[in-house]
Amino acid sequence: MEQTLNSSLGVKHISDATDEILNYINHRRKGIVKSLKTRWPKFNRQCMGGIEPNVIYSICGISGSGKSSFANSLETDLFDLNPEEDFVVLNFNFEMLSSKQVGRKLSYKLKRTTAELYSASNTDDSYRVSDVDYEEILKQTERIRQYPIYYVDCPGTVDEIRNTIISFQKIEGMKKKWLIVILDHTLLTKGRLTESERGMISDLQRMFMERKKYGKITIIQLSQMNREIEDKDRINNSNLHYPMRRDIFGSDSIFQTSDYVIVLHRPEIIGISEYGPKKLPVKDRIYMHFLKAREGEPKVLSFENNLKYNRIDEVDPYNVLNF
After folding, report:
1. Model confidence pLDDT, tens digit, residues 231-247
2. How is domain 39-322 classified at the architecture level of CATH?
3. Alpha-carbon distances, residue 167 vs 50, 90, 161, 172 (angstroms)
């Protein structure tokens, strides 16, 4: 039976691909093409200067590891530190209300806890926002509201996420912009009625792999870890402290499609007093494990835990640990 050719895939000669990489190399050396820098020098060095286009970053961690705060502050810093770059963020914010995300940005900028910002105590005046404080909040919100960030609060299926990305890129004024897609987080994506969570994540990864090749787009997805990393046998064995590939839920598909797989880990919250074979400190520390770096080697970066202000800070900008 003669096969139809209507669904054949596009073919590109190697000379065209060669011209593309030469153009990229030339533009990088001349500063025409740049990565979006973050405020973390160690992260920038590990990631080709910062956040790149046409790349998938997977940020993983157990609950309370700081991955949502990391993504929130990263999103803010990209605009503050790269004012000359023309990009926009489409944030699939499935875990929190978008208004609470803005609250986290205020916490980050003002170095006030969200409990303080929200006047959480009816009896303690130190937890009540004064008129002077509120004026500063108003100033910061005027800056924040100018960011070209667009939120999707309602969880959707893989197809709905894909269609939303495509429709957003077709909006007049968005067509030529660098689009940064953030998804928080993968397990909150809706699956089909008969589909398993792992099947849904596999479909999501295939879709992201497809979309990263169309236009100037970066994908940053947050994902969960399995509970195995909290097992007593691992906590008691320093050689098993570090997160591994299999600790990530849906690790096979996430590793296959991602350019960077990064695990944020707070050993102290699972009862570890000294971290790993090198007995690293755990008090107020967050460790960033690069399990996969397509253009580099696996590394471990150390950070100070300032999550009460929705931020993490580098302990030593030049201290990078090898696995």
Report:
1. 999 999 999 999 999 99
2. 3-Layer(aba) Sandwich (3.40)
3. 27, 11, 10, 10
